[in-house]
Amino acid sequence: MNKDNRGRRDHAGQKPTGHDRAGQNRGQGGAGQGPSEQRRTGQGGGDQGRGGPQRPGQRGADRGRGDRGGRRGPARPVRDEARNAAYDLMRAVDERDAYANLLMPTLLRQRRLTGRDAALATELAYGTLRGLGTYDEVIAMCSDRPPEEVDPPLLDAIRLGVHQLLRTRIPPHAAVSATIDLVRLRVGSGPARYANAVLRKVATRTLEEWLPIVAPPREEDPVGNLAVTYSHPAWIVAALRDALGGDAEETAALLAADNDRPRVALVARPGRCTLDELVAAGAEPAAYSPYGAYLREGDPGALPAIGEARAAVQDEASQLVALALTRVPLERDARWLDMCAGPGGKAGLLDALATLRGARLLGSDVQYHRARLAWQATAEAKIITADGTEPAWRPGVFDRVMLDAPCTGLGALRRRPEARWRRDPRGIPELTALQRRLLATALDAVRPGGVVAYVTCSPHLAETRAVVGDLAGDGRAEILDAREYLPEVPGLGDGPYAQFWPHRHGTDAMFLALLRRR
Questions:
Q1: Which of 5, 76, 403, 447 has the smallest set of CB atoms within 10 Å of its CB?
Q2: Which residues participate in catalysis according to the annotation?
Q3: DSSP strand pairing (335-338 vs 398-404)
């Protein structure tokens, strides 16, 4: 992830300018130190593990030894594997644009972290990534330089410390001490003095006391206030508020839900696994999906049904939009298409349902590795690699078409904590143009009387109502009331579309439109 996307004061949705090398060097000094003082304290954090005479700027205290006056330096820092794993994930997200939800399980396995240590590493990394917008504002108030001028490795460690101080029950002295040990080990002793000064200032107030100080007044800048309070870029706040009809209080509830840790949702693929099997393994039935369950604790990969692909991890709303497509009555029902099938969540459920009905599913994805994941998730479907805008199939041959279109992913921010800082509103016009082309292809692929499900994991109006309205306006399709095919789910909006929400349904913010081809 580009570190500039995570910089503070993003109220206008624009990226701060990148900092230069001088800014990086200044960010390693102690709070309030100038360049000459930084050189004296040797904050560069170089290799200090070798023996021999001290070099200029190298302090014996870094090796746990006394200084020139014979005083003993600080004790050797303690390596905390959970915090180091969280720190490594933060750095990977910044330096390599890693996906936190994909990398964290790997880090936990590599470090052999389980139980409470694994939970701590996950909470620290995910919680810090979600809270960057708020934390950077607090750090700015406690430092002599803005966060974007602090060396990124040091800034990430400080952010981890701020999260522990403001949003966990870790005692403040323990949070500061553990963070300083982390900085000494991973960045250097000079930067540790700077981090110590900043964190001690942060610890003087609670989060509730900091927010009125760092957030703009709501009456003057309602979007900016919500952006800082709930740690979202301002443009996302504005887009979500618009999707909710301008309701500020409900927008605040949605943003708060984005910052909650989501439960692990499972799907029992019908005909291959039963809900009872998942419940017997420790899950509890989902609120709405007849095939859904939530795992109370533990690793879902340890469940036999998951390992055998008879069940899967899948958000409940993702299950329900697929189920709604299958509930629309048709006279002929033999051929189904999933146009953007990777990584295979909806394809796996559709394949199971199609098999029970004697229908066949064709799954397609433009990327080979995503198509392969869809193939692994299905049992009977035929999976191909193809560009949905240049179809490899004849027009008008499918009875049901699922189009889970590429989107901004604003509906899944709670599951992808770094995503909110990566998205750029300037890319939306290009994305919506692709969505329109894909929906046009989907309508071409379905026979007259057949049905298309247009789905996005985003409630952004430009990606949802605007796209469907434009394509339906040419008279080729009738927009069905999607809510009629999800009678068990309340609060889906005024129709004819169905919009799920984290704060209403405990699911991702999935959008569904159902269109019948004329």
A1: 76
A2: 457
A3: parallel
